[in-house]
Amino acid sequence: MATPPAQEKMLTVLSIDGGGIRGLIPGTILASLEAMLQELDGPDVRLADYFDIIAGTSTGGLISTMLAAPNDEGRPLIAASDINNFYLEHGPKIFSESCRQKYWESVKKLSFPKNPVYDGVYLRDLTKELLQDKTLKDVTLTNLVIPTFDIKLLHAVVFSSNDAKSQVLNNAKLADVCIGTSAAPIYFPAYYFETKDDAGNTQTFDLIDGGVAAANPTLVAINSFYGEKLKQKSRIPEIETIDGRKMLVLSLGTGSAPFAEKYNADMISKWSLVDWVIQLPQRYTPLMESVTGGTSDMVDYSIAARFQSVLAKENYLRIQENTLTGDAAQSDIATDENMKNLIDIGEKLLKKRMSRINWETGRYEEVEEDVTNEEALATFAKRLSDERKLRLAS
User: Fold this and answer.
1) What number is the average pLDDT over the span 199-215?
2) Please, what is the Cα angle at 332 between 326 and 335, to 5 degrees?
3) pTM above 0.85, yes or no
4) What is the DSSP letter of 140?
5) Closest CA to 53 of 12, 16, 17, 18
6) For residue 185, cis peptide bond before it (omega within 30 degrees of 0)
7) Residues carrying an active site annotation
8) CA 124/CA 94 separation, integer angstroms
9) CA-based end-to-end distance of the chain
10) How many whole angstroms from its chain centre is CA 31?
C-alpha cells in the first residue's frame, strides 16, 4: 500500500466501538499499534501523542478514557498494552457469571426480572477509583469524545474535553461519563449525575449506553472537529477545510456475528413486544441488534464513501471481525476461556487480509491488494509518526 508524503497537517482520529467484554479485541489491536509507534519513536510515546481525537462508545469509551486521561505526571493513565490486563482482572467481576445465570434462568421460566442483569456497583466503584475526580477538561493531550444517550430527553449527548474547557456545565467527571456511556439497556442500570457552575446553575443527565446513538462513534468523532472549528476551539487551527484527503482515521470494531438471515418479515409480523426484546434459547435481542448493528454499519458505509469519493481510501482504516459465534459474540461472557479466546481472535484478526464494506451488500469483503490488517496498521503507524514529526518540526 503506497504511503502519500506528509506535506501538510492531517486530522488524526481514533474511534473504538462499544461491545462489553469484546473490548479485548480492539485492546489487542491497540497494543500492537502502540508497540509499532514505540519502535519508530521511542518507548515513552503513547497513543494520545498521535491522535487529535480519541472517541469511544460504551466499553470503547472506557478504553478511550484510560488512553487519554492524565496521570499525576500529565501522561496517559495507562499504556495500550495494559488494556487487556484491565479486562482480564476486572471483567469477571463486572460481568458476574452468577448474576448472569440467575437472570437468564428466570427469563427462561418467563418470570421476567424487574432489574438489569448486573447491578453495576462494581463497574461504578472501579471507574470512580480509577479516574477519581478527574474531569473532561483535565484531558489535554487529545480531544476525548464520548457519546451517550439521555433517556429523559430522548436525545444523544456527546461529551467532549474541548467543549468542557469552555462550557463549565459540560465539564463532567470522567468517571460519570464512562459509567453513563456504559449503561447498556438490559445489562446495567441507567446513570444519573449533575454538573454545576460557579454561579450555582445545574445541568442534569439521565444516561444510558452511548451505543443507542452511536455504537460506532467514528462519525461522531469526525463531526466533533467541525463543531470545534465553528467555535474556533480546534487544536489544529491550520486546518481550515477538511475532507478525506486531510484525515487519518482508525476505526476499531469489537466484533460481530457473521451475516445470517436470522429473521424475516413473515416471522416478525407475528412478534409481540416480548419477542422483540428476547428470543430464546439463543438469547438474541432483535431490537438491540437492529439498533446497534444498523447504525454501526451505516457509519462505516458513510465514512468509507466519503474517503473513496475523494480518492483517499487509504486514509481510513476500519478493522473489524465479523465472524464471531457462541460466547465470543456475546458482550458479557467474561469467563477465562472466553476472554482468552477474544484475545486470540484479536491476534488472528491482525493476520487476516484487510477488508472493506461493500456499499451494495453491506458485507465486509477482502480487498484486492494482498495486505493484512497488521501490515495496514504498520503503514498507518508510520503515517502517524511522520505526522507527529512534522508538527514537532514546525
Assistant:
1) 92
2) 75
3) yes
4) -
5) 12
6) no
7) 58, 209
8) 9
9) 27
10) 15
